[in-house]
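Weekly structure sync - notes
Attendees: PM, LS, DV (DV joined late)
Agenda: review two folding runs queued last week.

Item 1: First target. Sequence and structure tokens pasted below for the record.
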Amino acid sequence: MTTQVMVSYAHEDKDFVDKLAQALKGDNIPVWIDHTNIPGSAKWQREIEQALRSCTHVIVVLTPLSVKSEWVKAEY
């Protein structure tokens, strides 16, 4: 199985997450992030659930905003 990392985060932390993803990709680590991997017409919840099942690792970016996020809680 190919290593792929999913990143769970609060959308307000998108700029930090994009920098994190670039750093990981720079080390040849495939990264899955909702705003870059889900087409606009897709059902977001189904796509996120699929990513959680298929990724080998998940990074949860914990910030004051993400600990309040119901989506981050559900993904965790």
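Item 2: Second target, run right after the first with the same settings.
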Amino acid sequence: MKSIKDNVIWLLPSILIFIILLMIGTCTPRINDKFLVEKVRRENLEIFEKMRGKAEAKDLIAIGIDIQMGIDEIYFKEGEKVRKGDVIIKFSDYKQTDVDNQMKDKKRILAAKKSQLRFLEEQYKHGMNVKNQLQQIKGEIKAIEDELGMIEKNDALIQRNVVSPIDGYIVKINVIKGGTGDKNIPLVLLAKNNDIKIVSDPVRLSGNEYINIGNLAEIENIAEKGKKAPATLYKINDTGVKELKTLEFLMNSATDFKLNEIFDIYLYYQKRENVLTVPVSSVVQKKKGNENKFFIYLINDGDRVTEKEIYLGVSNGKKIEIYGKDLKEGMEIIKNPNNRIQNNIIVRRRSLQEEKREKEEKIKKLKSENERKEKEIEKKVLKTLKKENEKETNIK
């Protein structure tokens, strides 16, 4: 009998602990909201300024002509890419006929003048006083030969088209089809492939001592999101407004885009290496006494939440550096906490697939709602028009 009592006494603590754990398990608060779970990561964090800019030419190549000529065809537009040897402009051929006729007339006159020269030279040999006539005819022959040389030079210009001497871009075309080229204005302005720069819109750089010439950047065409190309900051320009600057970037490699295309520019100016980071959305600010403090919510294998105070470092807008006691890489945290999250509650996890599906359902619902409203508006308009037609009929 004594042995049975002793055994019961020894079992009582275990039974009591089991009951307490059972009570804790059944009493622990739960919430039905589902949360995305992210991990604390150790990585390099690059800090950047985001701005908008466009492609412009850095150095220009001008192509012109020495005479006025008609424009028969223009094969490219401003901003388009050309290869070496591409015909950009074709001249009209009416000038060619005009020049041919001028050359024929000048050659005929020259031949007649040279015949007169030979006749006068014979007279001079026989002692006739024709010295003044000889000087005059020689001057006329020289003037005609000069004019003929100019016409032949113009003829060489007329017989060629405007051909690109480089692989590059057309910056400016100063003529139109059917118009006339001006010898005082370049017909075409070109830029080489590697003479393209990205110029930012005016940006405010007050107090940012980290932005300097040589900083690396990435250029993203707004029409092709996700496709980025490396570039380097090479020039900072004053705008005339205090603290406002425009920044110029050179591409680090050949990139296929057009002049005047619009880009998002990510200028990297500070880098933190091997730091712990979390998504910005996972950090919650709370007032504790007279201080504002920051927290993340750790989540264990049993999906129980622990509120953890942290200290913040730099941020790039998406990720933020954190540090504090007992923080480790790989810890699971709630990425999207709300005001119902509390310490020591049990939560349900939400997958990225679920989030994507919910977004698609919301978009589908909004689209359906918009279609319904459009149909209602259309019905009201038709009803109003019908009433107006009935009124007009009654008046008649």
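Discussion on item 2: The radius of gyration is 42 Å.
Action: LS to circulate a short write-up before next sync.
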